[in-house]
Amino acid sequence: EYYAPWCGHCKALAPKYLKLAEKLKSNKNLVIAKVDATENDTPVTVEGFPTIYYFPSNNKDEPVSYDGDRTQTAMRKWLRENAVASKEGFPEEPVEEKVEEP
Description:
This protein has 2 helices and 4 strands. It is α+β, with helices and mostly antiparallel strands. The protein has a two-stranded parallel ribbon.
């Protein structure tokens, strides 16, 4: 995730992203990371915040952009579909989350 410290959307995503990272931390082939894009150079174009990319281990020059729902379940499903080399490290049980009404 590329984020900006002042971004409200990033702040709203932070607890969900942290829970996703904790749920998948046993997967040694997958790194869930946050990068402050206002303080660091990025290898991809970041036009808005938060911006999420997956960098495949076998093709880091062609990252996959995430544009789905910002829920643990949706992000986990997307990672499971795209992180082919890391599939064995995904727990089978679904990620529980509370759906908030706008």
